[in-house]
User: Which sequence fits this backbone?
């Protein structure tokens, strides 16, 4: 190697190595900064999501409070006012028969209030936030309502009940759907027997109410006439479920499909 | 130009002694570097037969430290001891019997520094992809790595062409030595960063 070549190669080597190593450091710093921004963005998104979740929780808590307040007002307030009115009336009545009638009215109203109160507490208590509890409560409602009017009934659970959580609001809505339907069946169906069958398939609750030998009804006509069916339908929609009314030789089949989770 | 480097190195050595959080092995290293540079200066001033007698030992010391520092992220203590031990022994064998003390010990210095570069790249990879770090100011080792990169860049031509320069009796030696001094500046600065960053983080 002569002097000229040596100078050229030294100059080349003096550029190549610093270029390679500086490029590695520069690439690292750029990549590090990019990753830093990504991490900061991810952290910001996570914090934002956390705040959103807190707000959502606060909103749902507020909604739950409003719901409880409304139910207390509607179910208990009016009932207590009626009882108070009946008691005032009782003071002015002298005959024993009239007193007996009013006392019976007060007794019925009080029982209804206690039942409503019990339902509200059951819905609020997170200890009962599961499907099993809902099924047990449904059985109790069916039993209470049928026994009161001496209506024969049968309660069946087709599938094993899995331990699945269900929120208070959903339990309460599902219960009110069944309660109203049973009430209608007892009052208007002229059925000889009521059979309630419950099963759970793929986290969807299927409830079939059979009004044995019942007269049945046209659902479209009745929905416009009464509040009961309208409210049932509203609650079913709220639960993202569905309902089916079928008139068969056996009697009226009413089927509800209620998803356990929204 | 050289004075600036010695000032920076002295500052690094003094800082390493006085800054509380400096690791002991780093204190020993920086003070050792200062002693080697001092000995080298004396040798040059006294026109000793060949300053490479000291420089070669200095390079073994330096590479052994870099290996120790950057192997901490890849190996366990026993593996580290074995690798550094083997490197030091082979360097000394080369120093005394193969290349000798009067010429650049490139047979051991080049593979040693190549290993150091690989370890630094591995360290950068780990820092980038295996941690969630957002600040390089929390990583003094990164600054040391960057300093070693720049230092080796400037050493590389000299290591490559030293024998050719000597054989041709070329006057390129001085210009390459000036180039090495630039790398030395960066290395001394990286030592200061290594010492000051943990201290600045605390204060």
Assistant:
């Amino acid at each position: 190697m002569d002097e000229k070549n040596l100078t050229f190669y030294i100059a080349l080597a003096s550029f190549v190595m610093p270029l390679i190593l500086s490029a590695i450091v520069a690439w690292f710093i750029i990549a590090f900064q990019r990753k830093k921004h990504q991490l900061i963005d991810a952290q910001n998104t996570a914090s934002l999501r956390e705040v959103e979740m807190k707000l959502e929780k606060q909103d749902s808590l507020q909604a739950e409070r409003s719901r409880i307040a409304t139910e207390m007002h509607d179910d208990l307030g009016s009932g207590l006012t009626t009882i108070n009115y009946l008691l005032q009336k009782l003071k002015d009545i002298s005959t024993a028969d009239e007193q007996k009638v009013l006392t019976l009215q007060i007794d019925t109203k009080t029982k209804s209030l206690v039942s409503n109160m019990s339902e509200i507490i059951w819905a609020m208590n997170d200890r009962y936030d599961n499907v099993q509890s809902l099924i047990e409560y449904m059985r109790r409602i069916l039993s209470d309502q049928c026994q009161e009017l001496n209506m024969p009934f049968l309660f069946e659970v087709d599938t094993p009940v899995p331990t699945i959580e269900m929120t208070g609001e959903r339990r309460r809505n599902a219960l009110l759907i069944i309660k109203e339907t049973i009430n209608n069946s007892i009052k208007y169906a002229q059925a000889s027997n009521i059979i309630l069958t419950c099963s759970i398939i793929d986290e969807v609750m299927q409830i079939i109410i059979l009004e044995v030998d019942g007269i049945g009804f046209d659902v479209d006509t009745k929905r416009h006439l009464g509040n009961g069916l309208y409210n049932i339908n509203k609650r079913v929609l709220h639960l993202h479920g569905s309902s089916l009314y079928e008139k068969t030789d056996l009697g009226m089949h009413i089927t509800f499909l209620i998803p356990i989770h929204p | 130009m050289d004075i600036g480097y010695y000032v920076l190195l002295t500052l690094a050595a003094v800082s390493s002694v006085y800054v509380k959080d400096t690791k002991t092995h780093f204190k020993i290293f920086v003070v050792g570097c200062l002693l080697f540079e001092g000995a080298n200066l004396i040798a040059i001033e006294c026109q000793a037969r060949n300053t490479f007698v000291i420089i070669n030992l200095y390079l073994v010391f330096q590479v052994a430290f870099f290996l120790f520092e950057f192997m901490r992220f890849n190996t366990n203590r026993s593996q580290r001891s074995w690798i550094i031990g083997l490197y030091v022994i082979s360097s000394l064998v080369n120093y005394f019997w193969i290349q000798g003390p009067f010429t650049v010990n490139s047979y051991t210095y080049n593979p040693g520094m190549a290993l150091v570069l690989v370890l630094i790249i591995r360290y950068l990879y780990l820092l980038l992809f295996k941690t969630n770090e957002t600040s390089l100011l929390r990583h003094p080792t990164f600054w040391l790595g960057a300093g070693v990169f720049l230092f080796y860049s400037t050493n590389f031509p000299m290591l490559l062409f030293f024998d050719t320069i000597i054989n041709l009796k070329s006057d390129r030696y001085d210009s390459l030595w000036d180039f090495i001094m630039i790398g030395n500046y960066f290395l001394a600065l990286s030592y200061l960063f290594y010492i000051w960053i943990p201290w600045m983080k605390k204060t």
Remarks:
- Chain B has a mean pLDDT of 87.
- DSSP finds seven helices and no strands in chain B.
- Helices of chain B lie at 2-18, 24-45, 52-71, 77-98, 106-129, 140-168, 172-202.
